[in-house]
Amino acid sequence: MAASNASEQIIYLPKTAPRIWQPVRQQAADSYLVLFIAAFGITVIAVRVFLEMTGYPQIGDKTFHIAHMLWGGLLLVIALMMLLIWDNNWVWWVSALLGGIGVGLFIDEVGKFITQSNDYFVPLAMPIIYGFMLICVWLFLRIRRSQPHSTRTLLYHSLHDLKQLVDNDLDPFEHKQLVVNLQEVVAKTDKPNERLLAKMLLSFVQAADLQIRPEPNVLERAWFWVKFIAARWPSRRSFRILLIIGFAIEALRALAQVGTLISVANNDSAALSIANFVIVNGKSRYIVDNPLLLTAYGGGTVIVGIMCAVAALLLIIGKERPGLRAGTLALALSLTGINLLTFYFSQIYAIGAALAELVLLLGAAVYRWRFYLNR
């Protein structure tokens, strides 16, 4: 009778469209993407700088050449296999790291596969690599802005957090978020199974004898330390002076770049026709005689330089908000547009310029966060 009564309590739902194919965003997708993008970018920079400094050595002999693209493919396979075999939380972090390094090693040789001559040094290679990174950054920003709150997604995330409980890695902050997610499911869902599961899990995670990790781990403590320092140092006056210097240097650098282009132009040409602008990449030399390409690069560089100069002047006279907006817009324009051409004309210089602009952009964002968003 007991078995019969138990079976009578089963509720059979009407046939509906299965949700198994509806994707659910990974809870820490933005963090995994940050690690992937950082590993990807650092790998490309490290490879290009190392090869430039060592004279582009090769592993192999007269018959074989072990290209670093192969090592990138191997790391990509390892990253994928780890995701297919293991289910630990740390596997996702390691896979994101290995995947980023693998993609960096793989795409660094894109020049060989877009040219008939397998030319590693072709100028178009670095803009393609940089463009791919911009796409990854755009994807990260899109994912970070979109915070799904469907009850199905919240249950997925809650079940994911329970893995950390099994591994004794659930800290108080994560525990609090887990409780909030489950309470939201109970309050909002219109599906009996979701509400029943959420209530059972909520009762479990709110148990008095539940053991959670009392302190954050090493990486979390390091991140808290970075935020603590960033929120207090340097002082507002010193920080503003650093930003003024940074924007002024960007303006001067833009003028220097335009001066380099003008120095190779025909003096008698009213249209700034460029005469045999030479690109040196590694062991190869390329001549660019397309006036439209060079004029577009020069014009864009001038615009960015003027905007950075305006940002520095506005910060000097105390107009911080418009100064930050002008400077941020200039850096965003340079990082997302002008640098595609910069990487075409130069590799090592463009890497340094892009990193400097990124640091200045982050500095402006931290300044705005410290002195405006927290007010």
Can you put this structure into words, describing what you see?
- By secondary structure, the protein is mostly helical.
- It has 3 domains: 117 residues, no CATH class; 65 residues; 144 residues, no CATH class.
- Helices cover 69% and strands 3% of the residues.
- The chain contains 13 helices and 2 strands, in the order H-H-H-H-H-H-H-H-H-H-E-E-H-H-H.
- Strands 1-2 form a two-stranded antiparallel sheet.
- A hairpin with a 2-residue loop joins strand 1 and strand 2.
- The longest helix is centred in the middle third of the chain and has 28 residues.
- The N terminus is likely disordered.
Short description:
Helix content is about 70%, strand content about 5%. The protein contains 13 helices and 2 strands; from the N terminus they run H-H-H-H-H-H-H-H-H-H-E-E-H-H-H. The chain has a two-stranded antiparallel sheet.
List keywords for this structure.
375 residues, mainly alpha, two-stranded antiparallel ribbon, globular
Topology:
Elements lengths: L1 H7 L20 H26 L13 H18 L3 H19 L17 H21 L5 H16 L5 H17 L3 H14 L12 H13 L5 H28 L13 E5 L2 E5 L2 H26 L3 H26 L2 H26 L2
Antiparallel strand pairs: 1-2
Helix pairs in contact: 2-4, 2-5, 3-4, 5-12, 6-7, 7-8, 10-11, 10-13, 11-12, 12-13
